[in-house]
Amino acid sequence: MSVPSFPTSLGTSTAEEIRLLGQDLAADLMGKVSFGELAFWLVALRRPTPSETRVFEAVLVALADHGFTPTAIAARLTYLSAPDSLQGALAAGLLGGGSRFLGVTEDSGLYLHSVLAGVASLPSDDAGWDALALSAVRETKAAGRFVPGLGHPVHKVRDPRTAVLIAIAEEEGLRGPHLRLFEAIGRVHEQVLGRRLPLNGAGVCGAALADLGLPVEMLRGFALLARAAGLLGQIAVEQRRPIGMDAYLTIDRNAVYVDPEPGLTSEPES
Question: What is the pLDDT of residues 117-130, one digit of tens each?
Protein backbone atom coordinates (compact mmCIF):
# COMPACT_ATOMS: atom_id res chain seq x y z
CA MET A 1 0.00 0.00 0.00
CA SER A 2 1.50 3.34 -1.04
CA VAL A 3 1.93 6.09 1.51
CA PRO A 4 0.14 9.32 0.49
CA SER A 5 2.21 12.45 -0.02
CA PHE A 6 1.10 16.02 0.62
CA PRO A 7 3.10 18.62 -1.33
CA THR A 8 4.08 21.88 0.33
CA SER A 9 6.32 24.76 -0.64
CA LEU A 10 6.57 25.94 2.95
CA GLY A 11 7.80 24.02 5.99
CA THR A 12 8.71 20.43 6.74
CA SER A 13 10.24 18.83 9.82
CA THR A 14 12.20 15.72 10.69
CA ALA A 15 13.66 14.59 13.98
CA GLU A 16 16.92 16.35 13.12
CA GLU A 17 15.93 19.33 10.95
CA ILE A 18 13.32 21.98 10.16
CA ARG A 19 13.22 23.23 6.60
CA LEU A 20 11.28 26.28 5.43
CA LEU A 21 11.01 27.55 1.87
CA GLY A 22 13.69 25.10 0.83
CA GLN A 23 16.10 26.49 3.43
CA ASP A 24 17.50 25.07 6.64
CA LEU A 25 15.56 27.14 9.19
CA ALA A 26 18.27 27.13 11.85
CA ALA A 27 21.30 27.47 9.60
CA ASP A 28 20.01 29.64 6.74
CA LEU A 29 17.19 31.80 8.09
CA MET A 30 17.39 32.45 11.83
CA GLY A 31 19.34 35.64 12.47
CA LYS A 32 19.77 36.19 8.74
CA VAL A 33 16.26 37.02 7.55
CA SER A 34 13.98 39.68 9.06
CA PHE A 35 10.44 38.73 9.99
CA GLY A 36 9.04 41.09 7.37
CA GLU A 37 11.24 39.57 4.68
CA LEU A 38 10.11 36.10 5.73
CA ALA A 39 6.41 37.08 5.71
CA PHE A 40 6.76 38.36 2.13
CA TRP A 41 8.67 35.22 1.11
CA LEU A 42 6.05 32.90 2.63
CA VAL A 43 3.29 34.36 0.46
CA ALA A 44 5.14 35.27 -2.73
CA LEU A 45 7.31 32.11 -2.57
CA ARG A 46 10.28 34.20 -3.65
CA ARG A 47 12.77 36.09 -1.56
CA PRO A 48 12.15 39.84 -1.77
CA THR A 49 14.90 42.22 -2.78
CA PRO A 50 16.20 44.66 -0.15
CA SER A 51 14.16 47.42 -1.84
CA GLU A 52 10.98 45.32 -1.73
CA THR A 53 11.64 44.46 1.90
CA ARG A 54 11.99 48.14 2.81
CA VAL A 55 8.66 49.07 1.19
CA PHE A 56 6.91 46.00 2.60
CA GLU A 57 8.12 46.63 6.14
CA ALA A 58 7.17 50.32 5.85
CA VAL A 59 3.63 49.13 5.11
CA LEU A 60 3.65 46.88 8.18
CA VAL A 61 4.80 49.78 10.36
CA ALA A 62 2.15 52.08 8.87
CA LEU A 63 -0.66 49.67 9.76
CA ALA A 64 0.48 48.38 13.16
CA ASP A 65 -1.39 50.67 15.56
CA HIS A 66 -3.47 53.85 15.45
CA GLY A 67 -4.53 54.17 19.08
CA PHE A 68 -8.00 53.37 20.40
CA THR A 69 -9.46 52.08 17.15
CA PRO A 70 -12.39 49.62 17.28
CA THR A 71 -9.95 46.73 16.83
CA ALA A 72 -7.89 47.87 19.83
CA ILE A 73 -10.97 48.45 21.98
CA ALA A 74 -12.32 45.00 21.09
CA ALA A 75 -9.02 43.40 22.08
CA ARG A 76 -8.83 45.29 25.37
CA LEU A 77 -12.44 44.59 26.40
CA THR A 78 -12.11 40.93 25.48
CA TYR A 79 -8.98 40.76 27.63
CA LEU A 80 -10.95 42.41 30.46
CA SER A 81 -13.62 39.74 30.12
CA ALA A 82 -11.22 36.80 29.69
CA PRO A 83 -7.70 37.64 30.96
CA ASP A 84 -6.93 33.93 30.86
CA SER A 85 -7.31 34.00 27.05
CA LEU A 86 -4.67 36.20 25.45
CA GLN A 87 -5.34 34.50 22.13
CA GLY A 88 -9.04 35.36 22.41
CA ALA A 89 -8.30 39.05 22.94
CA LEU A 90 -5.89 39.10 20.02
CA ALA A 91 -8.37 37.26 17.80
CA ALA A 92 -11.19 39.62 18.79
CA GLY A 93 -9.20 42.58 17.56
CA LEU A 94 -8.25 40.87 14.31
CA LEU A 95 -11.85 39.86 13.62
CA GLY A 96 -12.72 43.56 13.45
CA GLY A 97 -10.57 44.04 10.36
CA GLY A 98 -13.09 44.72 7.61
CA SER A 99 -14.39 47.21 5.08
CA ARG A 100 -14.04 50.22 7.40
CA PHE A 101 -10.86 49.38 9.29
CA LEU A 102 -7.84 47.48 7.88
CA GLY A 103 -9.79 45.89 5.04
CA VAL A 104 -9.44 49.10 3.03
CA THR A 105 -5.88 47.97 2.25
CA GLU A 106 -7.20 45.02 0.27
CA ASP A 107 -10.21 46.90 -1.11
CA SER A 108 -7.95 49.60 -2.54
CA GLY A 109 -5.53 47.11 -4.05
CA LEU A 110 -8.38 45.19 -5.68
CA TYR A 111 -9.98 48.36 -6.98
CA LEU A 112 -6.79 49.73 -8.51
CA HIS A 113 -5.91 46.32 -9.94
CA SER A 114 -9.32 46.00 -11.61
CA VAL A 115 -9.00 49.46 -13.21
CA LEU A 116 -5.53 48.66 -14.54
CA ALA A 117 -6.69 45.30 -15.88
CA GLY A 118 -9.17 47.11 -18.11
CA VAL A 119 -6.64 49.22 -20.03
CA ALA A 120 -4.69 48.09 -23.08
CA SER A 121 -1.57 50.09 -22.22
CA LEU A 122 -0.48 52.10 -19.21
CA PRO A 123 -0.35 55.91 -19.38
CA SER A 124 3.05 57.48 -19.97
CA ASP A 125 2.57 60.78 -18.11
CA ASP A 126 0.54 62.41 -15.35
CA ALA A 127 -2.07 63.66 -17.83
CA GLY A 128 -2.71 60.09 -18.96
CA TRP A 129 -2.94 58.83 -15.39
CA ASP A 130 -5.34 61.66 -14.50
CA ALA A 131 -7.60 60.78 -17.44
CA LEU A 132 -7.67 57.13 -16.42
CA ALA A 133 -8.37 58.04 -12.79
CA LEU A 134 -11.13 60.46 -13.77
CA SER A 135 -12.86 57.79 -15.84
CA ALA A 136 -12.59 55.27 -13.00
CA VAL A 137 -13.97 57.64 -10.38
CA ARG A 138 -16.86 58.62 -12.64
CA GLU A 139 -17.77 55.00 -13.29
CA THR A 140 -17.54 54.17 -9.59
CA LYS A 141 -19.81 57.05 -8.62
CA ALA A 142 -22.30 56.18 -11.35
CA ALA A 143 -22.44 52.64 -9.96
CA GLY A 144 -23.31 54.02 -6.53
CA ARG A 145 -20.08 52.83 -4.95
CA PHE A 146 -17.30 54.52 -3.00
CA VAL A 147 -13.70 54.74 -4.16
CA PRO A 148 -11.72 52.81 -1.53
CA GLY A 149 -8.78 54.66 -0.05
CA LEU A 150 -10.41 58.09 -0.13
CA GLY A 151 -11.17 59.86 3.15
CA HIS A 152 -10.34 59.16 6.79
CA PRO A 153 -12.37 59.55 10.02
CA VAL A 154 -9.51 61.41 11.76
CA HIS A 155 -7.15 62.77 9.10
CA LYS A 156 -9.58 65.05 7.29
CA VAL A 157 -7.02 66.97 5.24
CA ARG A 158 -3.89 64.81 4.99
CA ASP A 159 -2.99 61.33 6.15
CA PRO A 160 0.65 61.62 7.31
CA ARG A 161 1.52 58.12 6.07
CA THR A 162 0.59 58.57 2.43
CA ALA A 163 3.33 60.88 1.15
CA VAL A 164 5.99 59.06 3.17
CA LEU A 165 5.17 55.64 1.72
CA ILE A 166 5.02 57.02 -1.82
CA ALA A 167 8.44 58.63 -1.27
CA ILE A 168 9.93 55.37 0.02
CA ALA A 169 8.57 53.48 -2.98
CA GLU A 170 10.03 56.16 -5.29
CA GLU A 171 13.43 55.93 -3.59
CA GLU A 172 13.44 52.16 -4.09
CA GLY A 173 12.29 52.28 -7.70
CA LEU A 174 8.97 50.64 -6.78
CA ARG A 175 6.47 53.42 -7.44
CA GLY A 176 4.50 51.35 -9.89
CA PRO A 177 1.17 51.62 -11.71
CA HIS A 178 -1.04 51.02 -8.67
CA LEU A 179 0.56 53.86 -6.74
CA ARG A 180 0.54 56.14 -9.79
CA LEU A 181 -3.16 55.51 -10.34
CA PHE A 182 -3.86 56.04 -6.65
CA GLU A 183 -2.02 59.37 -6.73
CA ALA A 184 -3.98 60.39 -9.82
CA ILE A 185 -7.25 59.59 -8.04
CA GLY A 186 -6.11 61.94 -5.32
CA ARG A 187 -5.61 64.70 -7.89
CA VAL A 188 -8.87 64.36 -9.84
CA HIS A 189 -11.60 62.96 -7.58
CA GLU A 190 -12.80 66.41 -6.50
CA GLN A 191 -13.96 67.06 -10.07
CA VAL A 192 -16.43 64.17 -9.72
CA LEU A 193 -17.27 64.07 -6.03
CA GLY A 194 -17.45 67.82 -5.48
CA ARG A 195 -15.24 67.76 -2.41
CA ARG A 196 -11.62 67.03 -1.62
CA LEU A 197 -10.75 63.95 0.42
CA PRO A 198 -7.32 62.76 1.55
CA LEU A 199 -5.74 59.59 0.22
CA ASN A 200 -5.69 57.47 3.35
CA GLY A 201 -2.84 55.34 4.66
CA ALA A 202 -4.65 52.03 4.28
CA GLY A 203 -5.29 52.80 0.63
CA VAL A 204 -1.71 53.76 -0.16
CA CYS A 205 -0.56 50.60 1.61
CA GLY A 206 -2.80 48.53 -0.66
CA ALA A 207 -1.40 50.27 -3.74
CA ALA A 208 2.19 49.74 -2.58
CA LEU A 209 1.62 46.05 -1.81
CA ALA A 210 -0.01 45.53 -5.22
CA ASP A 211 3.00 47.17 -6.88
CA LEU A 212 5.20 44.61 -5.09
CA GLY A 213 3.39 41.90 -7.04
CA LEU A 214 1.70 40.39 -4.00
CA PRO A 215 -1.71 38.72 -4.58
CA VAL A 216 -4.31 41.47 -4.31
CA GLU A 217 -6.88 39.06 -2.89
CA MET A 218 -4.60 38.49 0.11
CA LEU A 219 -3.69 42.08 0.98
CA ARG A 220 -6.00 42.15 4.00
CA GLY A 221 -3.85 39.41 5.48
CA PHE A 222 -0.83 41.71 5.52
CA ALA A 223 -2.87 44.42 7.25
CA LEU A 224 -3.89 41.86 9.87
CA LEU A 225 -0.28 40.72 10.23
CA ALA A 226 0.74 44.30 11.01
CA ARG A 227 -2.19 44.91 13.35
CA ALA A 228 -1.45 41.71 15.30
CA ALA A 229 1.73 43.39 16.57
CA GLY A 230 -0.20 46.51 17.50
CA LEU A 231 -2.89 44.54 19.30
CA LEU A 232 -0.30 42.61 21.25
CA GLY A 233 1.07 45.97 22.36
CA GLN A 234 -2.43 47.15 23.30
CA ILE A 235 -2.95 44.08 25.46
CA ALA A 236 0.46 44.53 27.10
CA VAL A 237 -0.44 48.13 27.99
CA GLU A 238 -3.85 46.96 29.23
CA GLN A 239 -2.00 44.65 31.63
CA ARG A 240 0.17 47.47 32.95
CA ARG A 241 -2.32 50.36 32.92
CA PRO A 242 -5.83 49.01 32.34
CA ILE A 243 -8.64 51.13 30.90
CA GLY A 244 -10.98 48.31 29.90
CA MET A 245 -13.06 48.45 33.08
CA ASP A 246 -13.37 52.23 32.83
CA ALA A 247 -14.49 51.97 29.20
CA TYR A 248 -17.05 49.34 30.07
CA LEU A 249 -18.44 51.21 33.12
CA THR A 250 -18.54 54.55 31.31
CA ILE A 251 -20.84 53.09 28.66
CA ASP A 252 -22.84 50.83 30.98
CA ARG A 253 -23.46 53.48 33.67
CA ASN A 254 -24.57 55.99 31.04
CA ALA A 255 -26.91 53.69 29.14
CA VAL A 256 -30.35 55.29 28.75
CA TYR A 257 -33.45 53.35 27.78
CA VAL A 258 -35.45 54.72 24.85
CA ASP A 259 -38.67 53.41 23.40
CA PRO A 260 -38.21 51.47 20.15
CA GLU A 261 -38.66 53.47 16.98
CA PRO A 262 -41.88 52.78 15.04
CA GLY A 263 -41.38 49.96 12.62
CA LEU A 264 -38.57 48.32 14.61
CA THR A 265 -40.82 46.19 16.78
CA SER A 266 -41.95 42.81 15.52
CA GLU A 267 -45.61 42.38 14.71
CA PRO A 268 -47.49 39.63 16.56
CA GLU A 269 -48.42 36.66 14.41
CA SER A 270 -52.12 36.47 13.48
Answer: 999 999 999 999 99
Q: Would the pLDDT of 152 be above 80?
A: no
Q: What one-character-per-residue DSSP string does 2-43 give?
A: PPP----SSEEE-SS-EEETTEEIIIIITTTS-HHHHHHHHH
**Are the beta carbons of 71 and 227 closer than 8 angstroms?**
yes
| Beta-sheet pairing, 11-13 with 18-20 | antiparallel
Q: Would you state the pLDDT for residue 109? A: 96
* pLDDT tens digit sequence for 3-15: 898 999 999 999 9
Q: How far, in Å, CA of 270 to CA of 261, rounded?
A: 22
Q: CA–CA separation, 76 vs 111, rounded Å?
A: 33
Closest to 209 in 3D by CA, of 75, 8, 59: 59
Q: Which residues pair with 150 in a beta bridge?
A: 199
Expressed in angstroms, the distance from the first to the final Cα of the chain is 65
Domains of the chain, start order: 104-218 (1.10.230.10)
